[in-house]
Amino acid sequence: MQRFPRLGRILARRPRPESLLAAGAAVIVLGGLGTLTASDAAPADFAPHTDTVTAYNDGWADLIGDDNRDGRVDEDETGAAQPCRGEVEFADVCATVAERPAYAWTDDDGTPHTVAAGRKLLSRIDAAPGTEGFAATLFALDAQWFEHNQP
Fold first, then answer.
1. What does the alpha-carbon distance between residue 143 and residue 113 come to, in Å, rounded to a whole number?
2. What are the distances in angstroms from CA 23 to CA 7, 32, 40, 43?
3. What is residue 145's predicted lDDT score, i.e. its pLDDT?
4. pTM for the structure as a whole
5. How many angstroms separate the CA atoms of 68 and 115, rounded?
């Protein structure tokens, strides 16, 4: 039969310096790994802050071209298309219009108007890029933006 040392004797012994050093190093390494690999993922029942959702729905979705506001830009949405592809002569104006965010303005008689983001506006032009009709609509959109957004 084997005898096991009593707990009192085990606790009364002084630990070796190497044991303390090894234990301390293990704590530091494991703590560092835990910090580096900690997840920022939210629990399944987490609802995003209302201001974030409101900001997304009030313009960010239009800005990135997420037409159905599902959080991703699919190939049939305005953000997936290159609205200036084919426009050679006025490509810089087209790119400028495409980058503009949605905006709103009110008429002198109090009628409010909302204007979609530039990419969405460009996707609604009936003429093909590179044609006179596309260029005319492009400059009209640019002029309208300046009229309502410049002091």
1. 16
2. 20, 14, 29, 33
3. 93
4. 0.46
5. 17
